[in-house]
From TrEMBL:
Keyword Repeat: yes
Keyword Hydrolase appears in the UniProt entry: no
Keywords assigned: Repeat, WD repeat
Gene3D superfamilies: YVTN repeat-like/Quinoprotein amine dehydrogenase (2.130.10.10)
Positions annotated as WD repeat: 64-110, 333-365
Listed InterPro entries: WD40/YVTN_repeat-like_dom_sf, WD40_repeat_dom_sf, WD40_rpt, WDR89
Bias (Basic and acidic residues): 387-400
Name used for this protein in its record: WD40 repeat-like protein
PANTHER family: WD REPEAT-CONTAINING PROTEIN 89
Region (Disordered): 371-406
Signal peptide: none
Length: 406
């Protein structure tokens, strides 16, 4: 059993500030990003479109075609190629990565692999904008990490084919270490590598093996410690944290190896932390939506959802210790009628944008601060009943298997 407590500053929101339905074709809202003048949201099949939304009303102001075979990831980067302004970048099952120009309603750069159509599941862009990287589906016996110079988009610069042995689901450049790339895969590996290294054997820096398919992962900023820190999420709703702070008795072994082992700090079912106090608080977690960590908001905030469409923010006092207590910080309800698939925390404007399997996109007030107190007067709680652990996956096939992206 994992303990969950209500923070002394716990706040519940019972309605969104704004709500919009992005279509009648039952598309899921898969991903949300922030441009200077709009939010961008990509949808699943049958739409596959990327919608640009007014930041105040979240009403659609422009629609981009997206990728013909399905848009798999969406992000905003500060620079790409010779474009030194925030740009919208997406990857797709058509085997391309596209940089969009909202002024012309189409892409300005399209990176392809010499005409190959192997689906690309994730992408990122280096801080200087001169390298674009994409992770592919398994094709034959290879899953690739492919690098492009976006100024020459027709053919890749290099490719790494042995870092992972199954679908590459996560690629993310380190916000602190230039050219250090995080990757994760359905093969159970979470790795970091030097993105500028041509020799793949020399490129890999860290490796961590988690005995499950990794659907999400990201870097953890910390205000108190240094070193590599990573969070992970599996298709089975397990949650993990990793670091390169190797226990002393294993240090010699890892120094002698070709790469440094990532140390698994915490691994648990994210559905376990639940709170029961029927007079005031109650929360049951059914799935993880996403995690948030940034330089301005360090340490990890974990956003989880319920099958009824509500979502909550959980925080953990010590992610390096198994069984460390969790806190319920905030909850939001009555905005979605189905699973929340995507979430973007706009720290600058103190709002949260969510997208769901109900085709709705909602705007919410964001938490203003996080307290380190609240445990002394918090309430002990227990694990959820078995029925609340069941997540409805019946719609996966009808939406092109998009659930596997998570």
């Amino acid at each position: 059993m994992t303990a969950l407590h209500a923070s002394s500053n716990y706040v519940a929101a019972d309605a969104p500030l704004q709500s919009q339905d992005l279509g009648t074709d039952s598309s899921y809202i898969l991903s949300i990003a922030r441009l200077p003048g709009s939010y961008a949201a990509c949808t699943s099949a049958p739409s596959n479109k990327i919608h640009l939304l007014d930041p105040s009303t979240i009403r659609p102001i422009l629609s981009l075609s997206g990728h013909d075979s399905g848009t798999t990831s969406l992000r905003v980067v500060n620079a790409v190629a010779n474009i030194s302004k925030p740009s919208l970048v997406s990857s797709g099952l058509d085997g391309s990565i596209q940089v969009w120009d909202e002024r012309t309603n189409t892409y300005s750069i399209k990176m392809t692999d010499l005409g190959q159509s192997t689906g690309i599941l994730c992408c990122d862009v280096s801080e200087d904008g001169m390298t674009v990287v994409g992770g592919t589906q398994l094709q034959g016996d290879e899953a690739q990490i492919i690098y492009w110079d976006p100024r020459q988009p027709a053919a890749p610069l290099r490719r790494h084919t042995s870092t992972h042995s199954d679908n590459v689901t996560v690629l993310q450049y380190s916000p602190d270490t230039p050219n250090l790339l995080l990757s994760a895969s359905t093969d159970g590996l979470i790795s970091t590598s030097i993105a500028t290294e041509d020799d793949e054997d020399e490129a890999v820096v860290h490796v961590g093996f988690w005995n499950c398919s990794v659907s999400q992962a990201g870097w953890i900023h910390s205000s108190t410690t240094t070193g590599v820190k990573i969070w992970g999420h599996s298709d089975m709703e397990t949650f993990s944290t990793w670091s390169d702070e190797v226990p002393s008795q294993l240090a010699v072994l890892f120094i002698l190896s070709d790469s440094l082992q990532l140390d698994l700090r915490q691994s648990q079912d994210i559905r376990d932390p639940s709170l029961h106090n029927h007079s005031q608080y109650e929360w049951h977690t059914d799935y993880l939506i996403n995690c948030h960590s940034s330089k301005t908001s360090p340490d990890l905030k974990v956003f989880v959802g319920s099958n009824q469409g509500d979502f909550a923010l959980l925080s953990n006092g010590d992610l390096s210790q198994p069984g460390a207590p969790w806190r319920l910080m905030n909850s939001w309800s009555n905005g979605h009628s189905d699973v929340v698939r995507s979430l973007y925390w706009d720290e600058k404007n103190s709002v949260i944008i969510t997208g769901g399997e109900d085709s709705k996109i909602n705007l919410w007030n964001a938490p203003s601060s996080f307290d380190s107190a609240g445990l002394d007067d918090a309430m002990e709680v227990d694990s959820p009943p078995p029925d609340s652990r069941k997540r409805d996956r019946e719609n996966d096939d009808s939406h092109g298997g998009k659930r596997a992206r998570r």
